[in-house]
TrEMBL record:
Residues 11-102 form the ParB-like N-terminal domain. SMART domains: ParB. One of its GO terms (cellular component) is chromosome. GO terms for biological process: chromosome segregation. CDD domains: ParB_N_like (cd16411). It comes from Paraburkholderia megapolitana. This is Chromosome partitioning protein, ParB family. The lineage of its organism: Bacteria, Pseudomonadati, Pseudomonadota, Betaproteobacteria, Burkholderiales.
Amino acid sequence: MNQSGQPAKLRMIPIDQIEVINPRERNNRVFEEIVGNIKAIGLKKPIVVTPRATASGIERYLLVCGEGRLKAFRALGETTIPALVVSVSDEDAFIMSLTENIARRQCRPLELLAGIRDLQERGYAPRAIAEKTGLTMQYVQGILTLLHHGEERLVIAVEKGQIPLNAALSIVGAGDSDEAIQTALQEAYESGRLRGQQLLDARRIIERRKTLGRSSARNMPRKVTDVTSSSLVRTYQREVERQKTMVRKAEFTQQRLLFVVGALRQLFANENFVNLLRAEGLATLPKYLAERVWPGGSSA
């Protein structure tokens, strides 16, 4: 049924008269499978379009559902495609398209979630977005909060299931303070929100977020700005500071390693300690440490 209460009509629609309102990129392998299936057995499910009048009088249509099928027909050289024609508004067409993407869960996270942000910019409140997309209001509100802060890396991690949404929001709430972020991680661990692999993933994401920034240029197009001498100087200064931080971490790690090597040398000089280790089958060291504890060779 459509907005006028009339059932949708199945028609053959010229492909060049259809406009995609919510385009998204596709995995090449998946797209090739779609093309192959349609070529072998035909179109099992028609696409959905809604008509729009034009000043020239030429009939045009907005694509509501079925972008992959439409592209496959075009790739096969077809000029028309079976379509269900429904009468819906531009906003309802966009929402129907977004809902299909959410149901499939095959689009890239930021494309999917940018659609949620689009709905907010169109004036929809989180509750209305949740009702129209089938997502929970808590999830919608949390994602919008992350997007508002430019936390694209955290958004991707949440959508991929690497870290839970509430843990991501705790990280954002901690601000830029390393100490506050570590405290947030500790609290998330103690409360059971972050455990095992998720905790390791969260630490890795935070480190990348710190060194590479909150946004992910690979997944979301970024506004290109003019390069100036001052911007180059700032970029150079940031890179220098990042390199200095890496050097400090390396020096600290080296000092700890020297301390461990010195301590092991003293312990292995104690015959009673060595005999105890031998009795437990622990008298050997990893090659990397052994070469430093006994520069001239292994222990006697």
